[in-house]
Design goal:
Blueprint lengths: L20 E2 L2 E2 L3 E5 L2 E4 L4 E4 L2 E3 L3 H12 L5 E2 H8 L8 H16 L9 E4 L3 E4 L4 E5 L1 H6 L13 H33 L1 H12 L6 E4 L3 E2 L7 H18 L3 E2 L2 H5 L8 H8 L3 E10 L2 E10 L4 E11 L6 H12 L15 H15 L3 H14 L4 H16 L8 H15 L4 H15 L2 H14 L4 H13 L3 H14 L7 H8 L3 H14 L4 H14 L2 H14 L3 H14 L1 H16 L6 H10 L3 H14 L20 H10 L6
Parallel strand pairs: 11-13, 11-14, 12-14
Antiparallel strand pairs: 1-2, 3-4, 3-10, 4-5, 5-6, 7-9, 8-9, 14-15, 15-16
Helix pairs in contact: 1-3, 5-6, 7-10, 7-11, 11-12, 11-13, 12-13, 13-14, 13-15, 14-15, 15-16, 16-17, 17-18, 18-19, 19-20, 19-21, 20-21, 21-22, 22-23, 23-24, 24-25, 25-26, 26-27
């Protein structure tokens, strides 16, 4: 009969008896091996094949607790007592679910077919994988938590069962004594740690800045992502309106959607004191949302709440939650006006439109914004979204501007009429005055009003930069865009470089764009700004390379290859002719701005074609005419009276 040394599976009453802090570092108390994983309780880390895995403090504490229980069921009450201090109000249901989910993600297991953590319905959880003790410290052995020597036993089933039975009885007997001894040892080893914990219980948390992480979609339906993102967006907006603390923008936090990293690390990157995280689910006519507030510096849970609402009450939910959070942080702002009723169906259509808008699908977004206004004609945000759809389509050159610009103005005016306190409405009207009326003064007044209503509204500062650049007030435009970037660093990483480019400060534009791409090499518009800047500077080889990169990022490999061949065969002029041919082909099936074509002919030095196409642009009322004086390609036309006539009729201050 083969005899082998049996590896022991152990159990202790609390994860806190496994690791103690000292001034010079942690004491390595126990190290477990299971599968490819290594759990070091003393160093408080989880590794897989020698590589440390990122797992936040509470999920890691829970994993240690489950491992030390050696296959026994750990109830949710036990978990709550272990993970949270008794005087901190926390929604433990959500907290435990989140911690278990993060453990499973770190271990790479499926909750339906678990290999490590098993859910015991109605009771709790248990660790089901075999555990091997790699090492145990003298301190733990002295407590009796781990025997100093490992006995050899027979491989017979009877011996194994007897050993396990004795082991369970031993740990049940030692459990109470171990917990008391562990607490005494921990206080003796580091009394300062316990003093700090007691002080932390009584200290009032100070949170001056807060980031709302994207709500997890727990509906079990990927098609509900728009709803989770939309509610996140509205929660951010309502927090900014209802509190005095700084709220990180939507664009900044959305980069962390689906990213499971330590909260303290995320907070450090975003420069905030607090994190709000949570989840939302919707089924039939019911919505359940759970959120929790965490002080990032100490990873301390400060507050949590669950909300169960009917679909008819969902629109008011972000405001309700935001007011509760602001009250908790002593940063409430008096409400300016009572909440307006919003139809659930209209609200849902608006959320879908916003989701598609941020995804860059403007045409589809417009359909849902229009649906929102049809479902509820007095829905101000719906009209603002619809106005933005029309304006963006005209500015981007995707829509023939003749009809959409009038519709943009009408929708924006309707939005302001319905809710004069809405910053989004005034920005939409300012944009309409700019693109449709070419009324610079009125446009700036409306944008200024949006900023007055919400001084942290980065979108308004960005549009102000556009207006000022059109009026040749470039330094002011740069300062406005700097403000927009400061308020929302992750929105439009290309925008400040573009302001420099319009101001013909090309070296600064190149530096800014390259710095942004160093952090986010996949930003298509940053490559577009580099292309435009190199072109304006006469660096045509570099311009062609950036145009090629832009097309590759957009998935257009065929066009990228064609541009590369054209430049190799006949230089940058060949690239221009290829672009002209491509736009003319596109024009046979959809709208193409004549101003876009004009710019290509201007670069070729073709005066007649360039001027003729600019006249067509004026007839179309194209918004793209507003920035032509910023482009050096048109400089050779400055002495031409036909060009000067266009500038005068548009109403632009001459730059020649």
């Amino acid at each position: 009969m083969q005899v082998y040394e049996k590896k022991r599976i152990i159990s202790t009453p609390s994860s806190y008896s496994l690791y103690f802090s000292r001034k010079r570092g942690r004491v390595s108390v126990a190290i477990f091996q299971f599968g490819d994983f290594r759990l070091d309780c003393g160093q408080f880390e989880l590794c897989r094949k020698g590589r440390r895995l990122k797992l936040e403090r509470q999920p890691l504490e829970l994993l240690i607790l489950l491992a030390t229980k050696g296959g026994q069921i750990v109830t949710r009450d036990e978990i709550a007592k272990c993970l949270w201090e008794s005087d901190v109000f926390v929604d433990t249901e959500h907290g435990i679910n989140t911690a278990i989910r993060k453990i499973r993600q770190a271990l790479g297991e499926d909750k339906e077919q678990p290999r490590f953590v098993q859910t015991v319905s109605g009771q709790g959880y248990r660790f089901i994988a075999p555990l091997v003790i790699v090492s145990a410290s003298p301190e733990t052995q002295a407590l009796g938590a781990i025997p100093a020597a490992e006995p050899s036993v027979s491989t017979t089933s009877e011996s194994a069962q007897l050993s396990q039975s004795l082991q369970r009885k031993l740990w049940l007997a030692l459990g109470s004594g171990i917990a008391v001894a562990a607490l005494i040892l921990a206080v003796t080893l580091d009394p300062q740690l316990w003093i700090e914990r007691l002080l932390r219980r009584t200290a009032q948390p100070v949170i001056a800045s807060l980031a709302v992480l994207p709500l997890d979609n727990l509906s079990g339906d990927p098609a509900q992502e728009y709803f989770a993102d939309g509610m996140t967006d509205e929660l951010i907006t309502m927090l900014a309106k209802n509190s005095t603390i700084h709220i990180t923008s939507r664009t900044s936090v959305m980069q962390y959607k689906g990213v499971h990293r330590p909260l303290r690390e995320i907070a450090r990157e975003l420069g905030v004191d607090g994190i709000l995280e949570g989840s939302i689910s919707r089924s039939a006519n019911k919505v359940h949302m759970t959120i929790q507030l965490i002080q990032a510096t100490t990873d301390t849970h400060l507050w949590a709440e669950s909300y169960d609402r009917d679909a008819s009450e969902v629109a008011a939910l972000p405001t309700e939650a935001a007011q509760a959070i602001a009250k908790k942080l002593n940063s409430s702002v008096p409400s300016a006006s009572p909440a307006r009723y919003i139809s659930p169906e209209a609200h849902d259509a608006y959320l879908r439109g916003r989701y598609l808008w941020f995804a860059g699908e403007n045409d589809k977004a417009g359909e849902y914004f229009k649906k929102a206004t049809e479902l509820q004609p007095d829905y101000a945000l719906g009209w603002s979204g619809l106005a933005n759809y029309y304006g963006a389509g005209a500015i981007d050159g995707d829509l023939d501007p003749k009809a959409p610009l009038a519709l943009e103005e009408a929708a924006a005016a309707k939005s302001v009429e319905l809710d004069d306190s809405l910053p989004e409405a005034h920005l939409s009207l300012g944009a309409a005055m700019f693109t449709h009326q070419w009324n610079w003064d009125r446009s700036q007044q409306e944008v200024d009003r949006a900023i007055q209503l919400d001084p942290k509204y980065s979108e308004a500062y960005h549009f102000l930069a556009k207006i000022l650049a059109t009026l040749n007030r470039h330094q002011e435009a740069i300062e406005a865009q700097k403000k927009a970037t400061e308020l929302d660093p992750f929105a439009r990483p290309w925008a400040l470089a573009y302001s420099y480019q319009l101001a013909r400060q090309y070296d600064l534009a190149l530096t800014e764009a390259h710095q942004r791409l160093a952090a986010n090499g996949g930003d298509v518009l940053s490559h577009w700004v580099l292309y435009e800047t190199y072109r304006c500077k006469g660096m045509y080889k570099e311009a062609t390379e950036e145009l090629e990169k832009q097309l590759l990022l957009q998935g257009d490999e065929a066009s990228a290859a064609s541009i590369r061949r054209a430049y190799q065969q006949a230089g940058y002029k060949a690239v221009l002719y290829w672009q002209i041919s491509s736009l003319q082909k596109k024009a046979s099936t959809q709208y193409v701005s004549s101003v876009d074509l004009s710019l290509l002919y201007a670069q070729l030095g073709d005066r007649d074609h360039a001027l003729s196409l600019l006249e067509e642009g004026f007839s179309e009322h194209s918004p793209l005419l507003l920035w032509i004086q910023c482009d050096p390609a048109y400089d050779f036309l400055h002495t031409d009276e036909r060009y000067r006539s266009i500038i005068k009729r548009v109403g632009l201050p001459p730059a020649y």
